[in-house]
Amino acid sequence: MSSVTSAPTVPGAKGHSDGAGAFVPVQTRSERFRSYDPAAFEKPTGREVNWKHTPVDRLARLFVDEAGDEGAVAISVSGPLAAAGLQAGAAPRGEVFTPEDLPAAVAWSRSAEALYLSIPADAELDEPVVVEAVGAATALLAHAHIVIEAGVNSRGTVVLRHVGSAQFAQNVEIIVRDGAHLEVITVQQWDDDAAHAASHQARVSRDATLRHIVVSFGGAIVRVNPNVELAGTGSRAELYGLSYSDSGQHLESQVYLFHKGAETTGDVLYKGALQGEGARSVWVGDVLIGPDAVGTDSYEANRNLVLTDGARAESTPNLEIETGDIRGAGHASATGRFDDEQLFYLQARGIPEDEARRMVVLGFLSEIVQKVGVPELEQELLAAIETELALEVAR
């Protein structure tokens, strides 16, 4: 007499499409559970697919659904746009954003009023809008939700700057209307003890372009996860990232690019440098080309340069294609040390080793810096890289 043992039920799992009754865990970003209610999420343990690379104990306070501390993070806006406020339920807040993890759900529920930046239709901003978030102290908790909307055929740049220290959960909702061209640059230059978990979600409409750049230098743990949907025919996304991780720092980005509309284009390139004991970077890149995304052209890559012993970079590119009618799709990942041939070439021409190493690192990272498009910020970022390199030499 034979017996049959049923497969165990796993929370968050779904059945195979063959109907056999077995269960598999959710693997792709598009299948993850989403909710505005923090109570709908379980506290991360570090075993979940979206938390397995993250030291969750260092983000523990951001998993608690409690009010933030008054004055924990002061947010100011400068430039050609005036900011407005959006209550929950007021359009366009929530038009494209639904939390996909616990910190994002808490930030949604605890941000009674979202910061709203709206670029009018057909407007072209002649200078960037700068949103500066200044943390008061590492023991203080803060939440924020920001909505950035680029009207039809508009052009503009928004820079998000983060300095000081705090425990900060942040949502950024990005809406790019038909024919618009929007650039969003988020710069993390926190003090060494800050914790920052940010969820960016964007939708790009017909013939529109979003350039999204993540720059992370400071902070004990910084996790910035962009999620971009190319919804309209002919839409384009350029997703770039730059990180420089020092001793004890954890800098992470989990990128999701969903090609939903036809004739869409995606270009994803993240670069990172690491130095010092315990320096760590994590990059996960998920690209989904949907069944209606015919004519898609998409490529994602991650490159990491490990400068010292004791540093570690984790890189995972994923590509899922649900249509056979595409122009091209690919992904790549590489992590390594200095190219000995480059160093030999430079030293053979009389350049000292320290200067040769400096030139190689600057050449490696400046590709992302040059994509920023804001000259003053580009110079500032190059100076920040020089400072990091000086710290390495000092060690």
TrEMBL record:
* Classification via InterPro entries: Fe-S_cluster_assembly_SufBD, SUF_FeS_clus_asmbl_SufBD_core, SUF_FeS_clus_asmbl_SufBD_sf, SUF_FeS_clus_asmbl_SufD
| Stored SUPFAM superfamilies | Stabilizer of iron transporter SufD (SSF101960)
Q: Where would I find the SUF system FeS cluster assembly SufBD core domain in this sequence?
A: 140-364
A Pfam family (short name) is SUFBD_core
- Which processes are annotated in GO (biological process)? iron-sulfur cluster assembly
For the region Disordered, give the residue spans. 1-22
Q: Which NCBIfam families match?
A: sufD
**Protein family:** Belongs to the iron-sulfur cluster assembly SufBD family.
Q: What is this protein called?
A: Fe-S cluster assembly protein SufD
